[in-house]
Amino acid sequence: MGKVTVAVAVIGGAAVCAAAALVVRHRMQISKQCVKSADILKELEEKCATPTSKLRQIADAMTVEMHAGLASEGGSKLKMLISYVDNLPTGDEEGVYYALDLGGTNFRVLRVQLAGKSGIEFQEFAEVSIPPQLMVGTSEALFDYIAAELAKFVADESEKFRLPAGRQRELGFTFSFPVLQLSIDSGTLIRWTKGFSIGEMVGKDVVAELTKAMERQGVDLRVSALVNDTVGTLAGGRYDNKDVFIAVILGTGSNAAYVERAQAIPKWHGPHPKSGEMVINMEWGNFRSSHLPLTEYDNTLDAESLNPGEQIFEKMISGMYLGELVRRVLCRMADEAALFGDTVPPKLKTQFILRTPEMSAMHHDTSSDLKLVGNILQDVLEIPNTTLSTRKIVVEVCNVIATRGARLAAAGILGILKKTGRDTIKDSEVPKTVIAMDGGLYEHYKEYRHCVKNTLNELVGDELAKHIKLIHSEDGSGIGAALLAASHSQYI
């Protein structure tokens, strides 16, 4: 019995030693994973670096491209599109107007009652998701779907929004894709962005397509104004604040518009507007420069996108792509550093499975154990039981990608300030520059929003920063479209 007892004791001791050895090896393995992941993270930080000197170079390059785009059609990657909006809202607009805001994977329909100096008396809206298959289907299917939703919205019009007898309802159409504007109420599609790809629509008049769809659906609406979302945001911002000079969208996609002197637009061949000004839709998402801190992740994302070689700036700063960039970095860490175990989690290989809202939530997790990060990794990517060190690496990847995007957006704004001479203090009468900001990325991603503001202040300096203000123009593009429909009404 004693021998058996000894044997059992020896076997038990060996088992304990073996278990201890396994724990040590496991810890060493985790350590190696973290070290390799840290190396990949350090490399990412270096390639995404945006020191002030680089941001100034990017802003200068933006200014150069703005000049070239204003000089001639096709003179720059920046389209610098003439909007035909030469008068922004004054606050005197009255009546009931509709707006359709098509900006990405959702669209909004609005109905507003304008009451002159009293402002917006009533407004109602509905938001509708676009089925993914319609984003790559036919133009008729897409516009019929939109017109059908418009028909439902108009049919639900309450008594207080009734128009006088014989008066046709008028609509401002915010179409947030590159369009060559032909007049205030017509324009041909240059190309799709933000996941849309309907080839037959390119080169067609988007107002004509919407009008035909509304006729098929029996909707009695006239499109009075076709505007880009940034132009709409600029109009909506100006309605509330006379110092609004620039509008920037940071949402699914990204773009900017600003007020330019008519004399500074060499490619404008029409009569100079009485105001002496013209709103320019920059289409800055298509900006690119050798100074942009592009990485292997950006290059592969672009190569595998629906529009390779296009919208490079947008792919670095906007909500559609930030989460996907994070996924690509994590995928490399999983593959080369076994960050999530011996195999790459299958879900992590799925493009665009990690959306920017989840990235934002992880970035904002302030709990000591980063529990929310763990939950998102498990729920979205099906990666269970992650360690705290792994979660910290994930948060840092989110931080690097978001910070680069926000700082590049601020550099773009500086480029506009430089082009319009508002980047320096030349005399005691410094014009106040208000920048209307809109888009879900700017509105909901707090760290990103704060970084944009802080970086712009860093670039212009404390003294000038006192004269530059970023304001959130909530739903500015939709309200702005309704306002521009009012100012270009057939009944005025």
TrEMBL record:
Family: Belongs to the hexokinase family.
Pfam families: Hexokinase_1, Hexokinase_2
Enzyme class: transferase
Protein name: Phosphotransferase
Organism: Helianthus annuus
Domain spans labelled Hexokinase C-terminal: 246-486
EC number of the protein: 2.7.1.-
UniProt keyword Transferase present: yes
